[in-house]
Every structure is written in structure tokens, then in C-alpha cells.
Amino acid sequence: MDTASESPGASSRRRALVTGASSGIGAAAAAALAAGGCDVWLTYARDEQGAAATADEVRRHGAEAHVSRLDLGDAGAIERLLDEVAGRWGELNVLVNNGGVCPYTPADEISVAEWDAVLETNARGTFLALRGALPLLRAAAGDRSVVNVSSVAGELGGVATSVHYAASKAAILAITRSYARLLAAEGIRVNAVAPGPVRSGITGKLSDEAAAGLTGATPLGRFGQPHEVASAIALLASPAAGFTTGATYDVNGGVRIDG
């Protein structure tokens, strides 16, 4: 599923790694980054066909595309992926931590095993991918950027979503702010986007009643589209946002408005 092999450092295009890119926000982000001049390495957890379709869209923008299966709950798998990226590219300009899980389980029914699985995949997976990618980001010239995909649930708490999902997304915001401080002196920027209700495989699991309730609670009166979040990701990942780090970009239709 890869394009032709290329030696590290040979490309004049920027290089981006996007996790969870077989559909939804991740797929839209991969396409937006490709349109903006990035080669893209994308990962998927289960939907190989969706990942292949995303890679085709990336290539339609004239970009190089690579596809790898990744279980973000498996620390060894994250390390192996980054070793593979290092061997092929040797550097990264952009890391988008988008992959994650969102079970809709009532709080009093969440088992210890499910709690751990959600936090390990969403929060620990983001941390390990970011920390593990640092040598690749440090090896790249010019603007380097990490964009972590959180959620309005991480800011307000779970409403339609579950407690463990909200907790994991709040942790991602703390990881973002911590690494923004740690890496600022090196010129590596770390920001987050916090989507509200967006059409995706995750929100597709909602009942009609729950989806209608979310729509009614959104001031703009609709669900967002993946490309609307991807536009924010692409902006934060680009040199155009070169003075922005430690920020959370809300893309939520007005669900959360700070005064």
C-alpha cells in the first residue's frame, strides 16, 4: 500500500504522520495536509479499505502516501511504526494524533478493563506517539508541529459521550499544554483541536434521539463535517500558525463559548 521507496531526506515536501485516518476527521486531515504540500503517512486500526481510500485521496494531491495498521493501545506497535517512519523518511514536520476510541457506556457500567482500554488508547497512545516522534521532529528543518485531537467532552465533561472518553480527552489537553511548554525552546509547536458534534463513525453510533438532542444543543443547529475540523488541523500544522503553541482550537458549533 506504499508508494515507491524514497531515501530519508530526499523529498522537498513536508512530511506528516496522521493516526486514525481511515475515515472521518483523520481522513479529512490527511487530505487537507496533502493539499497543503505534505506527504502523508496514515494509520488505521481496523478499516483497511477506508485507509486505502484515504491514501488514494492523498495521492490525488500529488503527495506520497504510506499506510500502516496501528493499535494505539499497544506501546510496542507505536514504537515499531515510528521505527518504520524513521527508516523510510528519517524526519517528520507534522504529527496529528487523531486515533482513538469512544465507547458509549453509561458511567455505572464501565468496567475497569474498559476504562483502562480507553485511557490507554486515547491518552497514553497520544503521549507515546508524541514522545516517540520527537527524534523525527527534531531531525526536520523548518516549522515542526504536533496537533492533538481532543474533544469538547474533554473541556466540558461527557454529555452524550462517556466518562472515560471525556477523561481521556481532558488528558490530551494536559499533554498538549505540557509539551507545548517543554518543546517551545526547540521551535516545535504543540496544539490541540477540540471538536464538538461532528459527523463520523463515532457519532454515527448515537441513537436518533441522542443525535437530535445534540443538534438542538448546538447553537449553529447542526453537526459539523470532518473537513471543517481538518481545516483547523491543517492551519495549526502549517507555518502560517508559526506563533501558535499550547492553544486549543474549538470547532464545536458554539457548544462551548468562553467569555
From TrEMBL:
Keywords: Oxidoreductase. One of its GO terms (molecular function) is oxidoreductase activity. It comes from Conexibacter woesei (strain DSM 14684 / CCUG 47730 / CIP 108061 / JCM 11494 / NBRC 100937 / ID131577). SUPFAM superfamilies: NAD(P)-binding Rossmann-fold domains. Belongs to the short-chain dehydrogenases/reductases (SDR) family. The keyword Lipid biosynthesis does not apply. InterPro entries: NAD(P)-bd_dom_sf (IPR036291), Sc_DH/Rdtase_CS (IPR020904), SDR (IPR050259), SDR_fam (IPR002347), TAT_signal (IPR006311). The lineage of its organism: Bacteria, Bacillati, Actinomycetota, Thermoleophilia, Solirubrobacterales. It comes from the Bacteria. This is Short-chain dehydrogenase/reductase SDR. One of its GO terms (biological process) is monocarboxylic acid metabolic process. The keyword Manganese does not apply.
